[in-house]
Amino acid sequence: MEVVDSGIGPGLIAIGAGLAVGLAAIGTGLAQARIGSAGAGVIAEKPEALGPIILLVAIPETMVILGFAVAAMVLLLGG
Amino acid sequence: MNVPMLPVQIVGLKADLHLVLHVLRRAACVHIDELAETPEIAARPLALDRETLRQQEQLGVLVARIDGLLKTLGDRTSTEPSAGDGACLDAAREGVEELLPEVQALVSRRDSLQAELLSLPRYESTLRKLLPIIPASAHRPENMTVGALVSRAHVGILDLIGRRVVDLTAGRAEVIASDVDAATRAMLIVFPAEFAADIEGVLGREDVSRLRLPAQLGEGPPDIMLEKLQRRMSDISHELSRIETALGELAGAWSGRLARWRTILSDEIEANSILSSFGETDTTFVLAGWVPETEYQRVRDMLTDEVGETLYIEPLRMTPERRERAPVQLKNPAPARPFESLVSLLTLPRYGHIDPTRLMAFFMPVFFGMILGDVGYGALLIVLSLFLRRKLRKGVARDVVVVLAMGAGWAIVFGFLFGELFGTLGEEIGLHPLWFDRASAEHVSALLIMSLVVGAVHITLGLILGLFEALRDRSRSHLLERGGMLLGLVSLFFIVAVAVDYLPRGLMSPAIAGLIVGIVLLGSSLGWLGVIMGPIEFIGLVGNVLSYLRIAAIGLASVYLAKVANDVAGAVGTLIVGVIIAVLIHALNLVLAAFSPTIHSLRLHYVEFFRKFYEGGGRPYRPFRSTIE
Question: Which ipTM value was assigned to this complex?
Answer without folding.
Answer: 0.73
